[in-house]
Amino acid sequence: xxxxxxxxxxxxxxxxxxxxxxxxxxxxxxxxxxxxxxxxxxxxxxxxxxxxxxxxxxxxxxxxxxxxxxxxxxxxxxxxxxxxxxxxxxxxxxxxxxxxxxxxxxxxxxxxxxxxxxxxxxxxxxxxxxxxxxxxxxxxxxxxxxxxxxxxxxxxxxxxxxxxxxxxxxxxxxxxxxxxxxxxxxxxxxxxxxxxxxxxxxxxxxxxxxxxxxxxxxxxxxxxxxxxxxxxxxxxxxxxxxxxxxxxxxxxxxxxxx
Amino acid sequence: xxxxxxxxxxxxxxxxxxxxxxxxxxxxxxxxxxxxxxxxxxxxxxxxxxxxxxxxxxxxxxxxxxxxxxxxxxxxxxxxxxxxxxxxxxxxxxxxxxxxxxxxxxxxxxxxxxxxxxxxxxxxxxxxxxxxxxxxxxxxxxxxxxxxxxxxxxxxxxxxxxxxxxxxxxxxxxxxxxxxxxxxxxxxxxxxxxxxxxxxxxxxxxxxxxxxxxxxxxxxxxxxxxxxxxxxxxxxxxxxxxxxxxxxxxxxxxxxxx
Amino acid sequence: xxxxxxxxxxxxxxxxxxxxxxxxxxxxxxxxxxxxxxxxxxxxxxxxxxxxxxxxxxxxxxxxxxxxxxxxxxxxxxxxxxxxxxxxxxxxxxxxxxxxxxxxxxxxxxxxxxxxxxxxxxxxxxxxxxxxxxxxxxxxxxxxxxxxxxxxxxxxxxxxxxxxxxxxxxxxxxxxxxxxxxxxxxxxxxxxxxxxxxxxxxxxxxxxxxxxxxxxxxxxxxxxxxxxxxxxxxxxxxxxxxxxxxxxxxxxxxxxxx
Amino acid sequence: xxxxxxxxxxxxxxxxxxxxxxxxxxxxxxxxxxxxxxxxxxxxxxxxxxxxxxxxxxxxxxxxxxxxxxxxxxxxxxxxxxxxxxxxxxxxxxxxxxxxxxxxxxxxxxxxxxxxxxxxxxxxxxxxxxxxxxxxxxxxxxxxxxxxxxxxxxxxxxxxxxxxxxxxxxxxxxxxxxxxxxxxxxxxxxxxxxxxxxxxxxxxxxxxxxxxxxxxxxxxxxxxxxxxxxxxxxxxxxxxxxxxxxxxxxxxxxxxxx
Lengths: 258, 258, 258, 258
Prior knowledge:
- Four copies of one chain form a homotetramer.
- By secondary structure, the first copy, chain A, is α+β, with helices and mostly antiparallel strands.
- In chain A, 25% of the residues lie in helices and 38% in strands.
- In chain A, strand 3 (95-108) and strand 4 form a beta hairpin.
- In chain A, helix 1 (61-70) runs antiparallel to helix 2.
- Chains in contact: A-B, A-C, A-D, B-C, B-D, C-D.
């Protein structure tokens, strides 16, 4: 006995939908790297397709089937392939696939060489509705920033804090995750580390003091590095400082479409 | 003795910034209403201006001064005025002002008439960089949705759940917050209430069962209501269901620029 | 025709429940102060009672009715009265009432005297199951901390950051919210402000540099102040630093039951 | 040239601290399972030790070194061993180690047998200050619940929703993660799945309708299953329903120390 297929009914309201699908879907993933084995992580997915005006609904279980069948290390190519599979399985002209995950890098402390992980939140988005290029990569990079104003006006010390630099790029040719993180970390007053011995803490403290940067400076430094990359069609850089002297944050933003 | 003004230094990197300012700033607010006294709430603000390429930084304390001097009930007009003040105080061509807050409505249960509050997350955004109209209002409206597929295939019952419908509008003439919430609540299978006696719970349960709606249906119903409003230059509707049978959410989205 | 009352059925599983009720309930509130008019805010409530082994369920709508009928400025006395009302309305031996809200204080910058708000997350909890005293007040106070180690080992500068100091007290006689916040703010390297002109920023930067404090120091300083209060039966102090040189936090904790 | 060791200074305030350490530390982990290879995940750690009254501070970098040296699949034994290492490296009488992570299970849909992942938030905590047993395991299990009252009073349908059941156990002998999840999932009206075809959705809808459960019922059903486990010294069960007819949640809680 066939069960009714409510989703396949005709819709007469005449309104197309840009996205229908699933979101907040958590799934184990691995992440492709340029030089190492794929790194495991926990993915949070949104998967969707465009729905024409005359169709009442989409078939949500097919998104899960597509993800289950896909099972590849995350990369731009792999996400693009997943979007292609969604178009086919759901008979749609346009697909949307987004995954967020934590990416780890093992970093060495600057003097002692002690190793420890730093975590970065990464988002890959494929969206057929974006006109310049459908694939984007976004990464949130934590840095230390030291305030140039505070340094210049104070007889001793300078306020500093953790900040988040968010970079998103689209284009024909994208940097690797590690390249993107490395160029972004260079835009703050100092990089962050998890394992710092006293000699390292001294080095990082002095480096930050010698290299003050407003959020405006951070955004411009990272933007300068992105401007040199070939193949981008779009970038946005945003810096947000968890100011140590305020209970609010300072932020700056620049975006460019080529 | 004058303190150095680091922010006012010339910048030679040649990169303009679209926004520099403060964010995650919490501040007591009141919200203007059409027919009642202004309602108090807790605001979370982002305030920013555009920064020309040749200026190193903005003067962050002026955003706080502008907010402190402003002190008006929140409305489209008032946010627009605040943005104008930011342009003046910070000598900038373009300003950005966003505030999020919880808005309450006292609702009566459908049978017993018992009263209780329902909360809605509201965001006003003024952005000189948006080309169709700088002011937008967004509201997140919680509703109940009952799955048409589950109802049609099951001999008894139907899965249902809480969902969030997010509506954002821009244009020359915007509906009041209460109008926007009322038309959005009508798009689900049933409205939510905080105080429900047994006779109310029976009524709401049966209403939801008699009025099944996919996320696709919710977005289309709310979009139909928005299409009838005069004066909009843009709307987006997004419905997200916290599916009772899954640990992920279903969602649908439609946007239109006039 | 009477509707069945499923909650009032007998339960034969023999298991009493310590709390049954409602949570994540948002409601407009006002907060009593010692010297000013009550301050409005947005409350998030949990309300519950103990359920004996032989009763199947509680009547959830009565919690909403109790809150709607209560309508008082939040204070220790008022929360205690609400808990008493819950015991009566729900025929229970023990009640639980908790409310969280944002509390604002208007602060003057240390040199310029400019005014701006700082926000504090406050929680009042009344719990008949707590044996030393049923009422507690908790507040999260943001402060600046400057690292004594970084200062002592570095030739210039010292890392500093925003931190949260969480204080919770119970007892016969509790300090006012403002007293509790004031003594807690004194435990960091410097207080936070929203509006700081350059002369203020210089003062705060130098004060923090002159007053370095580990999370351990912060917890001990605040604990010393709490030890001097009469009438406490319990306190806990926790400090958490959003370290500017790490992407993790440092924390310390002390609690004492008298 | 030796750098000063500020942390090792004597403290004269006479106040011992129950915990000093690091928190919100993210680190790649694997999770031991009874029958499969260790499963990778992303861990969020808190690591701490007790600090005697006479010591000013702890040496935070040693927590990172301990975690880096540890590198084992997460299990009760492994967390206990890590805590032992912290006591040694930091010369402390008592240690604290907590890790939270997402754990995945591949589940088969009840009729079609389609496979998909469901995610569970798990926390292991080792705390030398807990008197009955230092090690606890906590898991948050999402389920569907259907309201017995709504079913009994309504002529058709019944409101249902996703809920979270949180279970925490301590004792000499703890169930495996999979055993704990399985017994908890049995306490709701129906389990959740990620991949459901129409025949599965029908089965789950009808199962939930046939098996209504208040939050009180869920807590009692799960508690009955825990009461049968040998070797527990403590358990707590909490159920929270994201009510489909309200914008607040219903919850119930039971705890027992043996």
